[in-house]
Amino acid sequence: MKAMILAAGLGTRLLPFTEFTPKPLFTISGHPLLDIIIHSLQSAGCKAVIINTHHLYKEIDSFLASQQYAIPVCTRYEPVILGTAGAIKNAADFWDNQPFMVINSDIVTDIDLRKVYDFHLSHNHQATLVLHDCAEFNNVWVDKNDFITGIQNQVKEAKPDHTRKLTFTGIQVLDPEILELIPDRVFSSSIDVYRKLILSGKKIKAYISKKYYWKDIGTPERYKETVFDKMAPQAFKQAFPGCVCKKIECSKLKGDGSDRKWYRLTAAGRSLVMVDHGIRKEPGTFEIDSFVLIGCHLYDKGIAVPRIYLYDTFSGIVFLEDLGDANLQAVVKAGKNLKQILSYYKTIIKLLIKMSVFGVKQFDRSWTYQTPYYNKEVILENECRYFVDAFLRRYLKLNTCYNDFEDEFILLADKTLEFSVNGFMHRDFQSRNIMIKDGKPYFIDFQGGRTGPIQYDLASLLIDPYVALSRHVQDQLLDYCVDELSSYIHIDKKRFCLCYQYCAITRNLQILGAFGYLSQVKGKTYFEQFIPTATESLKYNLSAVEDTQFPRLKSVIS
Question: Where does the record place the Nucleotidyl transferase domain (predicted)?
């Protein structure tokens, strides 16, 4: 058996995701659809495969060149799309005197292709079409003897022997004689060829798949559904070996500042969390790449982060350990025992030190999707300018601009980095990103990680407006961190604390910028309630540095 995979389509219904990635290279569990189909054909006994290409054909050629299949796989580029039948005719020199299989590149199925081919060999008709019952697409008429009697609008009225309508799966087996019905070098559809066969009195046999999975990924929604259908059971098997998941329930979780969507999946008394980052629109390193790479790295280093079980960075789907619903913010707000709260924070600070010291080892800076380092540019653009544009100008409607504070911001950036103790930096280390499960803290939302000062993460934790720790508790925990960190590396306490003061200011600017942006631009007004606490914190942190520093910033804040 030889086979053709039809892969020349433009993927119009999948725009904008097909602007840079052809539909056949959309992935499930990291495997492109094209690769999945080739392996299915190979397992079915196929001896050679040809793929017609057009849209982004170089991407397909490049992918195939990186693979080593057990059978020959080649492409046939079409400068002008020839249609499904035209593509078959255009590969006339590839076919031999045996029946061949043609399969669409945008389907996902576990239909046994060997059985389909053997079924075709068992009768003497020129074509076998594999059909499936899918109410949304059922448009092929089939009689009681499983012969196709009409396609789409060819049959205006159902006759007594037209017992049902089914869906064409995009899988077909054809005799070489069918090539005689297809015109040379012009656009031609297989459906038109089959209609001609039917009208001429010849018969097309239907292979009707039952109890098989089949879905086309012609739209973003159907692609996402397919990814979930195939990956969710696999994720449960990896997380819970021996778990039998007959049905997986999916419930949406409340989001936060991010645009990502979160879900809890439950099956057989077990649960996982699924996060959807969205389908990739273009090449490059994005949030999901950093989430997966940094998350796996930290987990391997023994850092308290959720285990990632399965992911697909093109579809944007990640399955990970379920840490429950209790975060540090909720625990602090519910807690009445200061001693217990301090105990939590001390445990978290120990884990923070471990993450900073050990997380930076073998950390590949190419994993980051923002910047590999926390540096002066990040402080000026992502903290200072963000504060001015999103909070002062957009939220408070103040007639001011970045240039009014530029010299002070430059001084702040220099001071922030002057005595930094660098390691792995989480970048958003606050109470809503620290989950408490069975009394143990775990860190989430680490995708913004990079190399940077531990003082910044510590400041994020201590000045966190979601919990509003008292100044006394903040100072106590700062001293505790210095003592704990000193057991790992030598540090100068005075310099460490000085850097911490400036990190607290830069972090405070970022917090207010984020609250202004989320409430005004994203419409997430929930965050507004924390603006007064964050503003008071910034006033206090600015007052803690020298009187001559940041006069204009102090003035606008007051």
Answer: 2-225
Record the pTM: 0.91
Query: Between β-strands 73-77 and 31-32, what pairing exists: parallel, antiparallel or unpaired?
Result: unpaired
**Interval 342-400: pLDDT, tens:** 999 999 999 999 999 999 999 999 999 989 999 999 999 999 999 999 999 999 999 99
Alpha-carbon distance of 383 to 55, in angstroms, equals: 42
Helix axes 33-43, 113-121, angle to 10 degrees: 50
Protein fold of 328-557 = Aminoglycoside 3'-phosphotransferase; Chain: A, domain 2 (3.90.1200)
Residue spans of the domains in the chain: they are 2-215, 220-321, 328-557
In this structure, what token pair is assigned to residue 437?
A: 């499960």
Residue 22 dihedral angles phi and psi, to the nearest 5°: -65, 150
Rounded to a whole number of angstroms, the distance between the first and last alpha carbons of the chain is: 79
Residue found by looking up tokens 């696999």 in the block: 234
CA atoms within 13 A on the CB side of 458: 34
Q: Which fold has domain 2-215?
A: Spore Coat Polysaccharide Biosynthesis Protein SpsA; Chain A (3.90.550)
Residue 421: band (very low, low, confident or very high) from pLDDT cuts 50, 70, 90: very high
Check pLDDT > 70 for residue 155: no
CA distance 83 to 372: 47
Spatial separation of the C-alpha atoms in residues 303 and 444, rounded to whole Å = 11
CATH architecture of 220-321: 2-Layer Sandwich (3.30)
Strand partners, 308: 320
Q: Which of 480, 29, 523 is nearest to 229 (CA)?
A: 29
Contact 263, 276 (CB under 8 A): yes
Structure-derived torsion over alpha carbons of residues 30, 33, 39, 41, reported in degrees to the nearest 10:
170
Residue reference for tokens 């969205």: 278
Residues 450 and 370: beta-carbon distance below 8 Å: yes
What the block records as the tokens of 516 is 């202004």
DSSP H helices, 136-243, are: 190-199, 220-239
- Provide mean pLDDT across the span 216-229: 95
- Residue 229, CA distances (Å) to 225, 242, 249, 250 in order: 6, 19, 12, 12
